[in-house]
Amino acid sequence: MTTTLPPVPSGAPSDSAAFAAHSAGPIAANESSGPPAESHLHVDDAHHIDVKGLTKILDGRWAEMRAWGRQISADPAFARPMDVSKEEHRAMTLERLKELAKRNWSAQMLPESLGGDNDPGGNLAAFEELVAADPSLQIKAGVQFGLFASAILHLGTEEHHRKWLAKTMSLELPGIYAMTEIGHGSDVSAVGTTALYDADTEEFIIHTPFRAATKDYLGNAALHGHAAVVFAQLISKGVNHGVHCFFVPIRENGEVLPGISIEDDGQKGGLNGIDNGRIAFDHVRVPRTNLLNRYGDVAPDGTYTSPIASPGRRFFTMLTTLVQGRVSLSGAAINAAELALGIAITYGSQRRQFADFTGINEVVLLDYQLHQRRLFPLLARTYAAAFAQENLLHAFHEVFSGENDTDENREDLETLAAALKPNSTWLALDAIQTSREACGGAGYMAENRLVGLHDDLDIYATFEGDNHILLQLVGKRLLGEYANSLKGMDAGDVTKFITSRAETISARHTPWRRLLQSASDLGSVRRTAASLRDPDLQLELISTRAESMVEELSLNLRQAPNMPKEKAAALVNSHQVELIETAKAHIDVILLTAFNEGLAKVEDEATRAVLVRLRDLFALTTIERELSWYLMNGHLSLGRARTLSDYIARLLTKIRPHALDLVAAFGYTQEHWRAPISSGLERERQVQAAEYYRHHRASNNAPIDEKVLYKRNLETKKRMK
Amino acid sequence: MTTTLPPVPSGAPSDSAAFAAHSAGPIAANESSGPPAESHLHVDDAHHIDVKGLTKILDGRWAEMRAWGRQISADPAFARPMDVSKEEHRAMTLERLKELAKRNWSAQMLPESLGGDNDPGGNLAAFEELVAADPSLQIKAGVQFGLFASAILHLGTEEHHRKWLAKTMSLELPGIYAMTEIGHGSDVSAVGTTALYDADTEEFIIHTPFRAATKDYLGNAALHGHAAVVFAQLISKGVNHGVHCFFVPIRENGEVLPGISIEDDGQKGGLNGIDNGRIAFDHVRVPRTNLLNRYGDVAPDGTYTSPIASPGRRFFTMLTTLVQGRVSLSGAAINAAELALGIAITYGSQRRQFADFTGINEVVLLDYQLHQRRLFPLLARTYAAAFAQENLLHAFHEVFSGENDTDENREDLETLAAALKPNSTWLALDAIQTSREACGGAGYMAENRLVGLHDDLDIYATFEGDNHILLQLVGKRLLGEYANSLKGMDAGDVTKFITSRAETISARHTPWRRLLQSASDLGSVRRTAASLRDPDLQLELISTRAESMVEELSLNLRQAPNMPKEKAAALVNSHQVELIETAKAHIDVILLTAFNEGLAKVEDEATRAVLVRLRDLFALTTIERELSWYLMNGHLSLGRARTLSDYIARLLTKIRPHALDLVAAFGYTQEHWRAPISSGLERERQVQAAEYYRHHRASNNAPIDEKVLYKRNLETKKRMK
Hints:
The structure is a homodimer.
Chain A: H1 14-22, H2 28-32, H3 51-59, H4 63-73, H5 86-102, H6 120-129, H7 135-155, H8 158-170, E1 175-178, E2 194-198, E3 203-207, E4 215-218, E5 227-236, E6 239-249, E7 251-252, E8 255-256, E9 260-264, E10 277-281, E11 284-287, E12 297-298, E13 304-305, H9 311-319, H10 323-348, E14 352-355, E15 362-364, H11 369-400, H12 407-438, H13 440-444, H14 450-457, H15 467-485, H16 491-509, H17 511-519, H18 525-532, H19 535-556, H20 565-573, H21 576-600, H22 605-625, H23 627-632, H24 638-655, H25 659-664, H26 670-673, H27 681-698, E16 704-705, H28 706-720
Parallel strand pairs in A: 1-5, 2-5
Antiparallel strand pairs in A: 2-3, 3-11, 4-10, 5-6, 7-8, 9-10, 12-13, 14-15
């Protein structure tokens, strides 16, 4: 039997293999048997992270609600199924949602007067965790509570609350949020559905006038929804008062009501536990009182009134309720990134491939520089995003709990959510895809979670505000603020100011001045590297870029208001990419600031030291990504720029020993990952294989490697010459 | 009835909306009714593309085989199903493969002596097209013909061909390619499976000695395979001769044979039409003659012989057969990118969102600068990749048809395939994901193809050689060539040479010299922009970067051979990211060169002019991606670098009018796209909606927009003051 034993892995260069066949050095199994499966490399580092303390900081104000959410998402009863039909998945998801409702899910969002806790922040914190159970369950909950119930709560008034809220929260009344149309997703104000008031019967007539006005992509529409909140153009007495929201019954006793046509959206890229569909209305009549009338009402005779005189401002106020979706999807996406990185980094710390310098052990994937470079910058950005998300949740809570509900806070909340939702959702897709590839073929198996996370999270970049559209909003807000900052000045001052800024910027475009300046910046690599670790310099670089870009864009667009409409539109369009880049530059500032704030909360010295390196990695890879901008605008000397990649490489090796702790601090366990590859199975297999080869080396009748004989032969021939 | 008509879309600023309500300007419907649905913007361009001529050039030498492949992939009978269980999909895919076999699919790969056409290039050209039918069908065909049959053909000898090839080609004998193990994917030489020769019975004993040595991810393993070609360590007379390939029966009459254990890999991220699984062997005996013995044989008494003395070279020769997979998957991935961009660009040319400057028409997505910037650089890179793929196919054909099968050509083919497969597969994932997002919610519907393409193509980045592992091979080859180029010199010369190169490079690190030089480079923006269009300058920049990186990396690693093994390994590892970047820089050179060669074949002047712009876009976005490198190394002046983004912006608007022609030239039609959103449906809906609003504006009893009243009111109040 022993003669069947194969030789040690022969992937190493032949001389190492020869060495291996005759050596009895330490073997991989011993190194990797104790959890966590850290490599023996890089353990010269004295810092050890206080994982629990770090989790507490990451969990923030609503740690208890998060814990509740995580407890539910660890329960196999709510786990995303594999290999089921969409029909089964849909039915299962409805049942699971009912089970959540029994546990008073989302009751925290209601004000105390309606039997809730008035804890909108806590409600979202728990909701964000549902993504770890099954994103379909999360989004179905989001449709029911975050959209349907919230529309009734925020756009409706007392009678609506009384009639429908309790039934909605208990899931006796599964609902549909009918805003998007085939023809209009991002441009909500342009929806085609009409709600014409008929004073004779005191009814609204809900109607879909053409195919593109059909409501689409609506969760609960294909099967489960009993009623919908429908966004339509309110027309009364010959005037169109813009988009308003109406409560419209859709099904009764399982039957679709007359005048309503339903189509099933069918199979999607993911989230197949949700029955998305289309709804068209053919002159469907609802009572006048089904108008959710908080921001606009119609009297029996058809007279329209609103507490908000400006139709534009009224429309945007009604849309503010959408911000809840953006805030919570941003948080959910970060959690998805945390799950993916947790799986990939854990697997990477156990999986071995290709012999190391001894020719005996194989190298742990995470010890490869490339593997670190693929995963750690994403880990750093995920930390930054998590800290920023906590701030966003605070901002949301302040407004929605009424703690501090001012117009200014609402506007800031809108902007912050519009900035962070794109960042978080793209980060998630990037982290998931990188993790999938970093896990190789194993990453492609559905049981290892990553492909399912990609499928489900993909659409997070589009729904509740397409990422690029949101970034445009952010960019426009930045331009507006810049313009406001000039408002105190009179016309002459503004002209002078603009001219002087234009000169400054144009000076930046000329490399001479700045470059000669930056020459004095050159010193030893060590000195310049050290200064890039200076958090003030990092923040100055990243925020200067954001500010300069707003300024430059404003200057580029300054003629637009004086131009004919067509030319102005063309000018603005020709700077659209800049506008988006400007918004993204602003997001980097938000993230770095949040990371620094988060860091300030860490008291444990050793943990702090590791997080400082992670922050440095975030800041420096962010600067590196835009390095050409810093060079072109003279903010970094060429000499200093050259030190950046070496410095990043050193950070990677310093973060390496703490990688498992850093993902553990996210608070997810095996129960959340549910991925066999990161369960320890891989380590067991490695131990078993290493034991096998150890026995084999120890035996005396193992086959010898032909390579050894071949080499010996060559040497003999050489000697004979 | 007419009073139910809603107003024009009110997404425009309120003053435009007012204008819209009273204007009777031209409407979108008129603009968009004629195919192709081009915008009225940017049609001042005189060039018109000769689409057919361009397709001919893209299709290259094997145009007929491509046409055959495209005809099959347009047939609904082979279309990727939606919303079926993996069981149904697997059964369906097997039946479809049998249907292909009836049509003599892949017979072209066989030499004339075995009844084929000896047209390996043509065979792959057709195979690459199958991705448009269903990637599961493609990969199942790849397993059967490209791997299983090819192993018998290339690693076996006459008797094997006689016994198994015909049955394999007819699918009477569905086969499994059992190379990868749970524990070893990329490091094939280290597989744990053993094949011990027993001279008493003249049999090999195939055995899986530990769990990690279980064969995994094998297509046809879970259900359909009757036999496998198994890669195992060949041991005879106490010597391990390394990895060889054995023909091992797996199932007979539907029953798994004794000693063989099968596990199903279950649901995967995609390619669920293939029954991937695991196989473990418990001392399974096969006749001596089941060794595929072209490169190594065992005599009845156990004596091993091989035509290739070096075990290392023998191993790599046996692996050469893998190159076919890399070549063809690269081509398939490019085709997938072409499909995705075809769908997204067509939809983008019909879909409208947000009112334009008139307040009446909505803007076609593809007229937004951002939309162009998201899609066109990918379109340009796809053209570059397609031209490069044709060269790769030629290189493959030369070697595999025997036309010009030299060691050098084999090595070049290996390197080129290792370079292009990662590029093409990542390009596909990027193009598919960008297209998905660019199509918004519609892009997430399975019926619109994009999500399915992502699911299936995802693993193309991993199988047949993980992309990063392949890039490492490319990087190492580049280092080797650089070392070879020094070989003519004696030791002293090399030292002198290295020192002088080191000085040159270190001079580049000091910004002074180059910068003062580049100052003379500064001129008017127009002049510098024009010179960036110079194809020689583009190629010089891109190839200089590739060369400098090899040089710099060589210098960084030059001490490694003199170091102790552990330190040498650490040094090499600390430059792994550079090694990968060096390989990628080399790929850019390959692509640009291929684009220029492709361009040289275009005779039609107008087509040429458009393709020149597309080539410029490819070259300039490639340079822009690495702009900081060019700046840090003094290859571009800051002034010239500043002109880059404006120049790219202008190229986008110039390519815009030809975007539909450029995707049409890929040769795919509606039958291949099979995506309702790009079928013209969207345009019909837009026309219908526009007609509705036109009637509405023409009628006299349409409701007036409250915004208009509100504005009028404000003005009245102002006048009253």
